[in-house]
Structure formats: C-alpha cells, structure tokens
C-alpha cells in the first residue's frame, strides 16, 4: 500500500505508460494513413493542383511530431518522478502543454476540413475515370484498375453516357456492381470510418491530457 509520500510515485507510472501508448497509437495511425494502400494510391495518382497530396504528407508529419512529443513528455515525467527533479518536471510539463496545443487544432481541423479531404479523394477518382472513359487505351486505365481493386468497388454513376465498357475493362474479375454503391460511395464510407477512428483517438488523448 502506498504511503502519502509515495502516492505520486505509485500513480505516475500508469499515467505515463498510458501517454506512451497513446503516442504510439498516434504514430501507428499516422504511419497507416501515410503508407496504407488506399491513401498512397490516391496520393500517387493525384495531380499537383489537387490538395490531397499536401494533406496526405502534412497529416503524417504532424502526427509523428505529436506522437513523439507525447512519448517524450511521458518519459520526462517518469524520470522526474524517479529523480525528483524540478527541471525534468518542468520539461515534461512543457511537452504536455505543447502536445495539448497540437491536439486541439488537430481536432478542430478534422471537423472543419473533413469535406475537403473527401472531395479531393473523389476528385482524383473522377479525373482518372473520365480520362479512361474518353480514351480506353489511356495509361490511366491501370490506375483506375488499381483503385477498383484497392477499394473493392466498380465504376460510378456517370451523366456522360454508358460506363459498361470502362467497368468491364477495369473492374476486378467477378466484381458485381451493386446499384447505388459505386466507387465514390465506397471512398466516402472508407474515409468516414478512418476519420471516425482519428476523432476517437484525438478525443481520448485530449481527455487524458487535460
């Protein structure tokens, strides 16, 4: 049983371990977002004028910096508790404050710019799809096939005419298109699930940081 003098020593390790786990979780999510097949594919295909590539890279570097700040804060706090160092305590507090100042804008950005991310991803698909529709021999055909295979979808509803020829050449073998569930819808659903997980992780981290 912890005495009153040892209470801080008893409570700090679990909290610091929790922050290290949260930092590792953010780093893992950032890495998946940057190197995951779906995101990497869209980023490589997107044009320079499309904002997705910038968002894709910025999210990764911001997430890594945020995770490293949380882990460093937890390590400094642990060392300060063991050594009873005011200097280490101040450094740990500063890192926690820095992480908190990064978490709040990240959470706000997630809610204010989620539509921009969604639209930029769908713009990439629209561009590739329409180029292949106009020219079946286009080099974009391989990119469209890769998107269909990654998202397990097939084509989209197009106002410009019949799309059966495009889908027959670029959809995965045996893929049956379900009416109303085109690739634009699949991209929206995939991104929504990913962003919901991001929101949950940011909310938990902010809650424990306060």
Question: How does this model look, in words?
Answer:
- The structure is a single chain.
- The chain is mainly α and 210 residues long.
- Helices cover 78% and strands 0% of the residues.
- The protein is built from 8 helices and no strands.
- It has helices at 7-35, 37-45, 52-83, 86-112, 114-134, 140-151, 164-170, 183-209.
- Helix 1 (7-35) runs antiparallel to helix 3.
- The longest helix has 32 residues, at 52-83.
- The chain starts with 6 loop residues before the first helix and ends with a helix.
Strand content: under 5%
Mean pLDDT: 85
Helix content: over 70%
Number of strands: 0
Q: How many H/I helical runs?
A: 8
Question: Which parts are unreliable, with pLDDT below 50 for 5 consecutive residues or more?
Answer: none
User: What's the gyration radius in Å?
Assistant: 23 Å
Give the N-terminus to C-terminus distance in angstroms. 27 Å
What overall form do the CA principal axes indicate? elongated
How do the SSEs run, as a string of H and E? HHHHHHHH
Could you describe the largest sheet, including whether it forms a barrel?
none
Which class do the helix and strand fractions yield?
A: mainly alpha
Short account of what is shown:
The protein is mainly alpha-helical and 210 residues long.
Topology:
Elements (H helix, E strand, L loop, with lengths): L6 H29 L1 H9 L6 H32 L2 H27 L1 H21 L5 H12 L12 H7 L12 H27 L1
Defining key terms:
mainly alpha, 78% helix, 210 residues
């Amino acid at each position: 049983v912890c005495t009153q003098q040892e209470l801080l020593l008893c409570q700090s390790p679990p909290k610091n371990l929790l922050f290290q786990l949260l930092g590792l979780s953010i780093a893992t999510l950032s890495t998946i977002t940057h190197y995951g097949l779906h995101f990497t594919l869209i980023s490589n295909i997107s044009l320079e004028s499309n904002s997705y590539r910038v968002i894709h890279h910025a999210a990764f570097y911001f997430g890594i910096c945020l995770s490293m700040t949380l882990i460093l804060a937890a390590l400094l706090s642990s060392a300060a508790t063991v050594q009873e160092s005011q200097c280490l305590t101040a450094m740990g507090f500063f890192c926690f404050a820095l992480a908190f100042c990064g978490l709040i804008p990240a959470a706000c950005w997630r809610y204010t710019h989620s539509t921009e991310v969604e639209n930029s991803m769908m713009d990439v698909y629209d561009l590739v799809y329409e180029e292949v529709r106009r020219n079946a021999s286009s080099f974009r055909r391989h990119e469209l096939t890769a998107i269909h295979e990654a998202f397990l979808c097939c084509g989209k509803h197009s106002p410009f005419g019949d799309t059966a020829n495009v889908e027959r050449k670029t959809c995965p073998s045996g893929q049956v298109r379900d009416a109303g569930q085109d690739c634009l819808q699949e991209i929206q659903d995939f991104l929504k699930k990913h962003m919901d997980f991001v929101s949950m992780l940011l909310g938990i981290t902010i809650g424990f940081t306060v």
